Amino acid sequence: MRLVFAGTPEVALPSLRAFLDSPRHDVVAVVTRPDAPSGRGRRLERSPVAALADQHGIEVLTPAKAGDPEFLDRLRELEPDLCPVVAYGALLPQRALDVPKFGWVNLHFSVLPAWRGAAPVQAAVRNGDDITGASTFRIVKELDAGPVFGVVTEKVRDRDTSGDLLTRLSISGADLLLSTVDGIEDGALRAVEQPADGVTYAAKITVEDARLDFSTPAAAVDRLARAVTPEPGAWAEFRGERLKLGPVTPVDDVMLPAGEVLVERKRVLVGTATTAVALSEVQAQGKKRMAATDWARGVRIEAGERIS
Fold first, then answer.
1. Distance CA 71, CA 101 (A)
2. Of 76, 91, 120, 299, which residue is most buried, by most CB within 10 angstroms?
3. Which of 19, 9, 84, 85 is closest to 50 using CA atoms?
């Protein structure tokens, strides 16, 4: 089957590699987001998907918009049978959806119809879900609402960050996407419409959304910190400056006023609405990331000081 693969970040790489390794499919091109400035020098860098395609000598298409006439013309020339999609990062107009014979099939990192939208894994962690997963579905105009081909499930572990969970899902999801495309080619797989009940949405998480609120219970602080790790990263303010924070760990043996910092020999605790949480790593403005205990010794925290 002739495929044009659409994806951008590292999480899409296991799926792209699965198709590149499959003797049944021919990846004739990839579609990815345009090169973006990165690092202190703001040099333009290829997306991870583009970089892998370059290594394999595969044509890379980087339209500013998927509705650009030049892109659509080239897509038609390529005559793909199907376009698998993993975290492409842009909307696909109907003109693009109509090109491949079997449509565009998306790998989405939730068990649909739960957590449609841009940040399903972060939403599952923040919500305290016990189980999440990945779904393959045919892309339609409505956001993540197309009929579903297949699902895999994954337990959300107690200390999972979004990064941990997404890494596992990208691997199991790659197997699911490959088997879905195989089944479509064989004519053995039919998509099933999503149920109308149980629809939830997971909007993209902004930097402001990642600010920890220590006036909430320890469990909520913990879940939010893990949900936004590694991106965009948890933070709070200390002495009027932004302080980046790694995941925290709720403790059962200490009660402190919300936001108050207590420095012990082997841990740094911050009060919440319930019990305290222990900080793991801290990064002050202009500084390197370090263990919370090293940071606390360096800034010489006074009794009663707070993080907010």
1. 17
2. 120
3. 9
Burial string for 284-305 (b: 16+ CB within 10 Å, else e) reads beeeeeeebbebbeebebeeee
Q: What is the distance between the alpha carbons of residues 99 and 82, in angstroms, rounded to a whole number?
A: 9
In the chain, where are the structural domains located? Answer: 2-186, 208-299
Given a cut of 50, the residues of the chain with pLDDT beneath it are: none
Q: The whole model's pTM is what?
A: 0.94
| Domain at 2-186: CATH code | 3.40.50.170
Contact 289, 283 (CB under 8 A): yes
Whole-number Å distance between alpha carbons of 266 and 256: 17
Q: What is the pLDDT of residues 128-180, one digit of tens each?
A: 999 999 999 999 999 999 999 999 999 999 999 999 999 999 999 999 999 99
Whether the Cβ atoms of residue 33 and residue 71 lie closer than 8 Å to each other:
no
User: Rounded to an integer, what distance in angstroms lies between the CA atom of residue 81 and that of residue 5?
Assistant: 11
State in Å, rounded, how far the first CA of the chain is from the last one.
55
One-letter identity of residue 274: T
CA distance 112 to 221: 26
How far is CA 45 from its chain centroid?
20
Residues 6 or more apart whose CB falls under 8 angstroms from that of 222 comprise 247, 248, 249, 250, 277
Phi-psi region of 240 (alpha: psi -120 to 50; beta: other; left: phi over 0): left
Helices marked H in the chain: 13-21, 48-55, 69-78, 94-97, 120-127, 162-186, 218-227, 292-299
